[in-house]
Design brief:
By secondary structure, the chain is an alpha/beta fold. It is 53% helix and 14% strand. The chain has 2 domains: 137 residues, Rossmann fold (3-Layer(aba) Sandwich), CATH 3.40.50.2300; 62 residues, Winged helix-like DNA-binding domain superfamily/Winged helix DNA-binding domain (Arc Repressor Mutant, subunit A, Orthogonal Bundle), CATH 1.10.10. Strand 3, helix 3 and strand 4 form a beta-alpha-beta unit.
């Protein structure tokens, strides 16, 4: 099955470059290329892309807010930021908004296509220097909500395997309600908003 990819990038030359890369890549189909977040918000939900490549520095609504607004409407889509910004604040704002990956614009064609393949497999692709900044930030700033309990750590490990809440509940012999409560506590302690972010942050501790 073809992977449906969309681009939100205001730089016309770069948008065309990415479009060419995607159009000639095996297994991928380009379903839309937008120069503003406003256009993407209007047209993308009908396209139902599997992966969306999003610039941060867009005119009008920026890329982070674009992801924040699109994520509830495209719950199965994966968003990868492709940007010049490497500061920790923007990285974490993007991840908190719903982005799954973060690449810098120096990424080569091979790196971009590999990131799309990675995110489709459930990964969170990041340029090497971005991953280093994320790790350094976690090391400098411990979770504000306190340490995870042994049961919470066990649940994060099970989340990392891709199990559903009801499957985790079955393994731990408790209710789905209990798992939900633990997951809310985990998210609060780790200061994250998704399974992938929780697993990534837990593994850097």
């Amino acid at each position: 099955m073809m992977v449906r990819v969309a681009i939100v990038e205001d730089n016309a030359a770069l948008r065309q470059t990415y479009s060419n890369w995607l159009s000639h890549a095996e297994g991928l189909t380009l379903v839309g290329a937008f120069d503003t977040a406003e256009r993407a918000l209007l047209e993308l939900p009908a396209q139902k892309p599997d992966v969306v490549l999003v610039d941060i520095n867009l005119p009008g609504i920026d890329g982070i807010e674009c992801v924040r607004k699109l994520k509830p409407r495209l719950t199965t889509s994966q968003f990868v930021m492709v940007t010049v910004y490497e500061d920790a604040q923007r990285i974490f704002r993007a991840l908190a908004a719903g982005a799954t990956g973060y690449l810098i614009k120096r990424a080569t064609r091979e790196e971009l296509l590999a990131a799309i393949a990675d995110v489709r497999r459930g990964g969170s692709p990041m340029s090497a220097q971005i991953a280093r900044k994320v790790v350094q930030s976690f090391q400098r700033t411990p979770p504000e909500g306190g340490a995870l309990s042994s049961r919470e750590r066990e649940i994060v490990e099970l989340l990392a395997t891709g199990l559903l809440y009801k499957e985790i509940a079955g393994q731990l012999e408790c209710s789905v309600y209990t798992i939900n409560a633990h997951v809310r506590s985990i998210y609060e302690k780790l200061q994250v908003h998704s399974r992938s972010q929780a697993v990534a942050k837990f593994r850097t501790q």
